[in-house]
Write the structure tokens for this entry.
Amino acid sequence: MGAKEFTADDWKKIHAHFDAHAEQYGLPPRVYGSAVLASFNIRKLGKQSARSEACWDFLAKVCRRFDLLAVQEVMEDLGGFWHLKREMGREFALIVSDTTGVFPGEQGLGERLGFVYNWSMVSRRELATDITYDRSKILDTLARQGPEIVVALSGYAAELKAWEAADAAYRRKELTKRPKKPEFKVELPTFLTFIRSPFCVAFEVNGFPSTKPYKFLAINAHLYFGNYVEDRRQEFQALMQWILQRMQGDDGTGYPDLFLLGDLNLDFDNPEQDRQRITDIIEAHRAELPKATDVYFPFLEVRPGCSEVFKTNARMSETFDQIGLFTRDPRFPRAAQHCDMGQGPRGPDYGVFDFPRLFADALGLGPIASMSSKDKAGFYARFEHEVSDHLPLWLRVPLP
């Protein structure tokens, strides 16, 4: 752990303030008759030793408020994820994907996608799968746009060829320093496949006696950030197309409703402009959907009682993370009912947990907005790696 991170005394103050005031910062309380679904990119959630026990305790306190939590950036080493689940309590279970985003044995930042769920409220069902584009789909894309893709790759191909020649010279001991492999920095003209395969698992949320449970597929996604905003938009559009195509009919699984939870790296820093672009992607497919199907992204809208859309990164500058509902079950929150969000204690409702503001208040640092740029940078550096650089976002639904 770095010298700038929180001290034991800092954590003592943070935990005391959390225990007394956590809900003032957006953490949802436990409410009988409701379930809370959530998403949290916990930065590089890997070895248990990479975080202090005070930090693990804090993360567990936060995460146990959620009945189904999608977690992004779970690393190859699952020690930390297992430890977090144990700290959350015996009523929680987890399921995790294999490593995605890097070929085994090659360099790169591969990661897993995981779910933690309260088995007293949520049951895991039979289906668990990655979402991928099959080879025939990729080959079809290559056949249609091959020349444009070749042009886009040409610069990188030349750099790669030069590196291979230099690396061969190094191995022949003609060079004393091994050359660095060039960064893959290519703006593709079209979507080919996901940088990290989204992870899809079937769940049920049980309600009151003699009621039909909620049944849905939960899709956990950490989409591409990359060097080019168009690449990010292509991945989001491809995932929307996959989901909306699937919603057009009964695929035989018995789970017609889908929840998308994750770090979509959405280009949504200008809501007035970006909301319409995202809505247009959905509307392009809406005519093909069954009439009873509803598509609802509450975090694209301003929550009733608030003045702007929620930000989901720790620096409160972007809305990268989202929860999207693709539903036929009329008991789920609907887009047309957005104005009813937050009107009752059992939901529906949604929000984010603003833990940086809690940290600042607990440590007596004053409002973050009043800090100088230098002080802000120093403040964020104290927790962005050990805790996270993303905020948890959540959606409360009444139990059936």
Notes: Residues 135-171 form the longest helix (37 residues). The chain has two domains: 8-132+201-398, 133-193. The longest strand covers residues 34-45.
